[in-house]
Amino acid sequence: MRFQYDTIGERYAESTSTAAFSAADTYTLHGALDALGGVRGLDALDLACGYGYNTRLLARGGARRTVGVDVSEEMIRLAREHEATKDRPDVEYHVADATGLPHLGPFDLATAAYVFSYAPDRRSLHAMFRSVRANLRAGGRLLAIVPNAGAFPRVDWSPYGVRILDRVPDGDAPLLKAHFLTEPPVPFEIREWAHADLAEAAVDAGFVTVGWQPNRTPPADAVRDEAYWTAYRAWPISSLMTCTA
């Protein structure tokens, strides 16, 4: 995984900041944070932070301490480079694997976009949830964007920035081979974990509640009108998983 992300660097950053699926993820996360009363005064951890988009969202929301973590040294370099231009010493970034996070907390809130999809097997999936739980205070929240299983090959997500090319039965969860639809396309692979698998791992890690919310789409605008989002709403790419420690 480290090599994969280090080689796509800024092209990945571009794809997730402009693609429609990412706009829906961000809008969903915004709504969930608002429903919790915001992040002001909280200690917040952003897992699989990439180049720091959601990490900066937490910092701008008034988090007391904001920490971004990613397995990719290149992504963390990009994130730190961005903070240096904005002169934001209040945001920390660390290179670390989610299957074995160092003790960085405790935190009141953790956000995670697609990190659990990269667990190669059930053992790693459970280790990821245990690492997150170990960094949360009692009562802390995990908000995780996770893909919805079972769409391929019936659903085409190409209009929203992602194309699934193949689904390969393999080990504990099928392997999805896909492209981010940048120019040129950026290949990536994720595991198709069922929501039940994720919930099992969360409970095993010590989370006391697990819930799900459907992804929400942003308000229509001149670029993406109501008709544009119709197919996405019928079968959204992802859902929001909410867990309480």
Give a quick rundown of the structure.
The protein is 34% helix and 27% strand.
Number of distinct beta strands: 10
Query: Gap between N and C termini, in Å?
Result: 28 Å
SSE string, helix = H, strand = E? HHEHEHEEHEEEEHEHE
- Output the number of helix runs: 7
Helical residue percent?
Answer: 25-40%
Q: What about the largest sheet? A: 7 strands, mixed
What is the quaternary state of this protein?
single chain
Low-pLDDT segments, ≥5 res: 1-17
Q: Which sequence of strands runs across the widest sheet? A: 3-2-1-4-5-10-9
Q: Report the C-alpha radius of gyration, rounded.
A: 17 Å
State the shape. globular
Average of per-residue pLDDT values: 89
Structural class: alpha/beta
Beta-strand proportion: 25-35%
How is the topology of this model organized?
Layout (H helix, E strand, L loop, with lengths): L1 H17 L1 H16 L7 E5 L5 H8 L4 E6 L2 H14 L4 E5 L11 E7 L8 H13 L1 E12 L14 E7 L6 E6 L5 E6 L3 H11 L3 E6 L15 H5 L3 E7 L1
Parallel strand pairs: 1-2, 1-4, 2-3, 4-5
Antiparallel strand pairs: 5-10, 6-7, 7-8, 9-10
Note down, in words, how this protein is organized.
- The structure is a single chain.
- This protein is 34% helix and 27% strand.
- It is α/β, with parallel strands linked by helices and 245 residues long.
- A hairpin with a 5-residue loop joins strand 7 (175-180) and strand 8 (186-191).
- It starts with a helix and ends with a strand.
